[in-house]
Design brief:
The complex is a heterotrimer. By secondary structure, chain B is mainly alpha-helical. In chain B, 69% of the residues lie in helices and 4% in strands. Chain B has a domain at 59-266. Chain B is built from twelve helices and four strands, in the order H-H-H-H-H-E-E-E-H-H-H-H-E-H-H-H. Chain B is globular. By secondary structure, chain C is an alpha/beta fold. Chain C has a domain at 28-34 and 42-126 and 212-301: 3-Layer(aba) Sandwich (Rossmann fold). Chain C has helices spanning 28-37, 42-45, 89-97, 119-124, 142-146, 156-160, 167-180, 197-211, 227-242, 254-260, 283-291, 298-301; strands spanning 51-60, 63-73, 78-83, 104-109, 112-114, 127-130, 215-219, 247-250, 263-268, 271-276. Classes of the chains: A alpha/beta, B mainly alpha, C alpha/beta. Chains in contact: A-B, B-C.
Chain lengths: 342, 341, 310
């Protein structure tokens, strides 16, 4: 084969080679500077893995940042991973496997699927890694060594009680905007709201229900659709504040903002601001930083002296509203602004 | 009477070296001509880079992990290869597999594992036949057909599953493909073995049977195939039906890997299979490529994800890297084709 | 050695080139013996056509594509079919190749009436067509292209159960055919796209010649080729004729036609205007016959001179 043909064959291959090497090295250099994994932890004895549902939701960003701070303080290395989208179980399974392969001693996880993640958790624990659930319990709860979370049932009850009290004697027309099927957080908050409101599932007062994956855009679309079917709605349960914000857009566009009482859960700073602005009536604050710190501390303790954490550890919740009602403990938005996350 | 190849025009590479090429030169020529060379080199580069960054990368545990994490998309990518070889594309392949997992889990509760498996294969084959029928009988473009079936199947899956996911008991035949076994001191799952088996079987069919020739012919030119007496419609239809079988196999492997049937799972599988196929060197324009390249493409994607995760790279950067790799692969394919024209 | 493709009728194995075969029409010797009997008429003395058609008609609504056309093709000859654009020659050829079913008229092969419902029927009867765009698959290798649609399986279990192709045999046979027809391609494992235009034409012709035992139809084979490669194709056509297989050559290229054709069928207005002997008529006269500027002689109109015994 003569030289020109030889080089004609070689060039694209060499090109591909160089380009892929550049891509790989570039991506590695770029990415590892940002995340906790490649950072200045150095060769620490304590390796902790953190897997959040996604890495875009401010709630999980707060968890990651708090965990990083707690890990730095303890001199531990934190490797932070996340699912690709809310509900991505498969990505979290891979993340657990990868963390175990990297030799972590403990894994903190906010599971996307409370049941789907079980086999991966079991494999990790069989390899001697302790697994702690944050924010969302697994189903069953004892599939992990310990859970640090908000008592989501209690949070839902609080929201339900406040909405009911605020409605007063008006016959309720309730719309429920839920999150993603398969998560215990979803179920507990939903059931808690019903309990706090004093009704059962299937009560005729519930005029609409949609899943929103906790996403603002989806919630807006869902609310628009629901308003077509149930324009009389006067009470809105939302799974979290982004969903509430999205629903409010739809309600405001329909001119019904004075008609609907909106409740939510989360306690993010943006959400607290929404309460102060009157977009959301009241929200139940969670304490993700506390969850993250407790989780990190538990793993550190396990590595240092072998004590394993256990059980469900309630990190608490607090109603934030400027329209308090009797019988339900609350704080105003000023307090909320000081203690919020995100 | 003209005989020699010296009459070839300047635009085509000469097909013979001057008399008496050395054996090693010929060997080198054949290696450099091999279309799999690019993907293989990319895979080796990736492995070398990542093993130098992370000292746990080449552990047997991690290697086994990469294979296991590639099983579902790897199996589906075989079907995607077939369809892309016929110059089509299948956007619905992931959703068919997900529906398969739901069917399998639901049927298992009431009817046991055998019925569940049979029902799943039946459903997936029927869906493949639907795609195939729309493409061959109605002559609709595969992109449009599978876009429609993808949307419909995804919705149907959510309806069928209600708003829940289904646990399948570990240890039942449904999770069999997740069971591990040791071979030559290396631990892996039956799912990985099945994936390699699927590649072997389809690879054999493509390269050693008349059906395989017809698949390439139909992808190269339907007119030429028909004029040559090939029943193009039948070949095309069979490809979609085979893909249905492959999707059902992937569903079985999925339950083996995660014994939980989730309607939200594998949402990106369609694009990931296309990525694996393209990186492996199969041309999106049909008629050239094969499953060997796809296997390498699948491994490249798996190595990339695993390696970048171990290097601490955010999953979003991983997606950027994969995307760039796809563009590089398509560009190289284009260069190669232009050279030969 | 058998083929096991599910075609309507069996294909024989592609044969090595041979002198005009015994299945050809009666030779000159037989005609002579017939006269010795004293009982034969003139028509028996003439060789019978391999392929003929009479009174073919095909209409599409108001458009008449074939208007009562006749056609005769004798053994071991090259018959060129010429005609202006729109004269209807492609429709006639399509009817002969089975791509078109005529509304009226009959087609006969070796004296027996045949009905072609599709191209498979025609191919089964031994009529092979080399299309203008060649109908080869560029990404596949030469051997696969030659055997496209007629692949050979291995003997025994590997062939029947595992459906394994006998690539070595297909490669060997393709290679032999290429050599026999004088086409200089070194390796049949090359993909067709690496070949020049003339070589690709060669592969397409090999495919037709390997399986065609009755008639080979070539549609504008030199249209896209340069001088040298056209010469290769002309030589190919001669090689096929030497094997005793008649060739129908559709072409616009008068010099090529006059170089290789034994008789020239002039098609005009949907039917045969006449058949001329290229030794009797010049190129410009043939062109004039095509356009109608000149009229054919009575003998030409009736089907022209019968071919000499070769």
């Amino acid at each position: 084969m003569d030289r020109s043909a030889h080089s004609r064959v070689r060039k694209p291959i060499v090109g591909a080679l160089l380009l892929s090497t550049a891509v790989l090295l570039g991506a590695t250099a770029c990415g590892s500077g940002d995340t906790a994994g490649g950072g200045g932890g150095g060769d620490s004895d304590i390796k902790i893995g953190l897997i959040t549902k996604t890495d875009s939701n401010p709630f999980f960003v707060t968890i990651r940042e708090s965990a990083q701070a707690a890990a730095d303080e303890a001199g531990a290395e934190l490797i932070a991973l996340a699912g690709a989208f809310d509900g991505d179980n498969e990505g979290q399974v891979s993340a657990i496997e990868n963390l175990v392969s990297q030799g972590v001693q403990g894994i903190l996880i906010t599971p996307n699927s409370s049941s789907g993640i079980l086999s991966a958790i079991k494999q990790a624990r069989d390899n001697g890694v302790i697994v702690i659930a944050l924010d969302t319990a697994t189903d069953p709860e004892d599939a992990v060594d310990a859970t640090f979370a908000t008592d989501n049932l209690a949070a839902g009850v609080t929201q339900g009680m406040w909405v009911k009290a605020t409605l007063g004697n008006t016959p309720p027309q309730i719309v429920m905007l839920d999150g993603t099927p398969g998560g215990t957080v979803d179920t507990f908050r939903h059931d808690g709201f019903l309990e706090g409101f004093g009704i059962e599932e299937g009560d005729p007062a519930i005029v609409g229900q949609e899943n929103t994956n906790g996403d603002q855009t989806k919630a807006q679309t869902a609310m628009e659709n629901l308003l077509q079917r149930a324009p009389e709605v006067n009470a809105l349960y939302t799974i979290n504040e982004p969903a509430a914000a999205g629903a409010y857009e739809a309600i405001e566009a329909a001119g019904l903002e004075n008609q609907v009482t909106i409740g939510s859960i989360d306690g993010g700073c943006a959400g607290v601001q929404n309460v102060a602005d009157g977009v959301i009536g009241a929200t139940v604050m969670q304490f993700p930083s506390l969850m993250a710190e407790s989780g990190v501390d538990a793993v550190v303790a396990y590595v240092k002296d072998g004590t394993k954490p256990s059980g469900f550890n309630d990190t608490g919740s607090m109603l934030i509203t400027d329209q308090p009602v009797d019988g339900v403990e609350s704080q105003d938005t000023a307090w909320g602004a000081e203690n919020c996350w995100g | 009477m003209a005989r020699s190849t010296a009459s070839t025009t300047a635009s085509t590479p000469p097909s013979a070296s001057p008399p008496g090429p050395t054996a090693s030169r010929q060997w080198l020529t054949r290696i450099l001509r091999e279309p799999l060379l690019g993907p293989i080199i990319a895979l080796l580069v990736a492995i070398i880079v990542f093993s130098s960054i992370s000292n746990t990368f080449l552990n047997p545990f991690n290697v086994s992990l990469i294979l296991q994490q590639s099983v579902v998309v790897g199996i589906l990518a075989v079907g995607q290869t077939l369809i892309i070889l016929t110059s089509g594309i299948d956007l619905s392949i992931g959703s068919v597999a997900v529906l398969g997992t739901i069917v399998m889990a639901q049927m298992f509760d009431a009817n046991g594992p055998v019925v569940a498996l049979l029902a799943t294969f039946a459903v997936c084959v029927v869906l493949g036949a639907v795609n195939g029928g729309l493409v061959t009988v109605l002559r609709l473009p595969p992109f449009i057909v599978t876009l429609g079936t993808f949307t419909a199947i995804q919705a149907a899956t959510r309806l069928l599953a209600g708003s829940q996911t289904y646990q399948v008991p570990d240890g039942s035949p449904l999770t069999f493909l997740g069971t591990t076994f040791r071979i030559f001191g290396f631990t892996t799952t039956y799912g990985v073995a099945v994936m390699l088996l699927v590649y072997a079987v389809v690879g054999y069919a493509l390269s050693q049977t008349a059906w395989g020739r017809h698949v390439y012919a139909v992808g190269g030119s339907i007119t030429a195939s028909t004029l040559s007496g090939i029943k193009a419609g039948r070949t095309l239809f069979s490809v979609y039906v085979v893909t249905g079988v492959i999707a059902a196999t992937a569903a079985w492997a999925a339950l083996g890997r995660i014994p939980n049937a989730d309607p939200n799972a594998y949402q990106n599988a369609n694009l990931e299979t296309i990525t694996a196929v393209v990186i492996g060197g199969t041309s999106l324009f049909g008629g050239r490529g094969g499953v060997a390249g796809t296997l390498i493409g699948t491994l490249i994607v798996g190595v990339l994800r695993n390696g970048l995760t171990q290097a601490g790279v955010d999953s979003l950067y991983q997606n950027i890297a994969t995307g760039i790799l796809v563009i590089v692969a398509v560009t190289v394919d284009q260069f190669a084709r232009r050279r030969t024209q | 050695m058998t083929f096991d493709r599910a075609t309507p009728s069996e294909h024989p194995e592609p044969s090595r080139p041979s002198r005009p075969s015994a299945t050809a029409a009666p030779s000159a010797t037989e005609a002579t013996e017939a006269t010795a009997d004293g009982r034969t008429s003139i028509t028996v003395l003439q060789t019978a056509p391999v392929l003929e058609a009479h009174g073919l008609v095909k209409k599409y609504g108001n458009v008449t594509a074939i208007n009562g056309a006749d056609f005769e093709l004798f053994p071991a000859e090259v018959l060129a079919v010429v005609g202006d654009n729109g004269a209807g020659k492609s429709s006639l050829i399509k009817a002969l190749a089975g791509a078109l079913v005529p509304d009226a008229g009959e087609i006969k092969m070796n004296g027996g009436v045949v009905h072609f419902h599709n191209t498979r029927d025609a191919r089964a009867a031994g009529i092979e067509t080399v299309y203008q765009d060649l109908a080869v698959i560029p990404a596949l290798d030469i051997a696969s292209n030659v055997f496209l649609g007629r692949e050979v399986r291995r003997r025994g279990l590997m062939g029947s159960l595992f459906r394994r192709l006998d690539m070595p045999r297909m490669r060997a046979e393709s290679s032999n055919h290429l050599t026999d027809l004088g086409i200089g391609i070194k390796s049949v494992t090359q993909s067709v796209e690496t070949l020049s235009g003339g070589q690709r034409q060669g592969v397409a012709v090999v495919r037709a010649a390997a399986f065609g035992r009755g008639v080979i139809i070539m549609d504008e084979p030199t249209a896209a080729l340069g001088v040298k490669e056209s010469g290769m194709v002309i030589d190919l056509i001669r090689s096929i004729r030497e094997r005793g297989i008649p060739v129908v050559l559709i072409s616009h290229d008068m010099p090529h036609v006059f170089e290789v054709a034994d008789r020239i069928h002039v098609h005009r207005l949907g039917k045969r205007a006449g058949v001329v002997d290229p030794r009797e008529r010049s190129m410009s006269e043939v062109v004039a016959l095509m356009t109608g500027a000149e009229q054919p002689t009575d003998e030409e109109r009736a089907g022209g001179p019968r071919p000499d015994a070769r």
